[in-house]
Design brief:
Structural class: mainly beta
Distance between the termini: 36 Å
Mean pLDDT: 88
Radius of gyration: 14 Å
Largest sheet: 6 strands, mixed
Oligomer: single chain
Number of helices: 0
């Protein structure tokens, strides 16, 4: 696998392209230093049509996934999103709606206490959702 680019280095994206034997062409971001969901510029300039695998944003310092949090992500054909082991406390409305091809979403090992109604709206292909090891007191099944 390729070496991650350091976040915050001028002119470089904190994200790298790699090939996953399970998911195919994928993007991994942050190397543990990612403080938020990547902005449009942070995602890098890999051809969007080539990234059909996983988006890896694990083991960072992401504190929340705001409403429409992944709207700036150009890799809409990705089928897996890994957000495990961050510091996420809240997930906003339609946070992942632009990633309509997702079949696999991991949010385990965070500090999630609330998920907005419609947090998972748009994920019509979702087959697996992992929420264990969070602090969810109530879950709106309408989401």
């Amino acid at each position: 696998m390729a070496v991650l680019l350091a976040a915050g280095v001028r002119g470089q994206s904190p994200c790298e392209r790699y090939s996953s034997s399970t998911y195919g062409p994928s993007v991994r971001c942050g190397s543990g230093d990612l403080p938020a969901v990547p902005s449009e510029a942070d995602w890098g300039e890999f051809p969007a049509s080539e990234i059909t695998g996983a988006l890896g944003l694990c083991c960072g310092d992401i504190a929340e996934v705001p409403a429409g949090g992944f709207d700036a992500c150009p890799y809409t054909a990705a089928t897996a999103l890994f957000l495990a082991d961050n510091e996420i406390t809240a997930v906003g409305r339609r946070a992942f709606a632009r990633l309509a091809e997702l079949t696999y979403l991991t949010l385990q090992g965070n500090c999630i206490t609330s998920m907005a109604a419609e947090a998972l709206a748009g994920l019509t292909r979702l087959e697996r959702l992992y929420l264990q090891q969070n602090r969810i007191g109530a879950f709106d099944y309408g989401s």
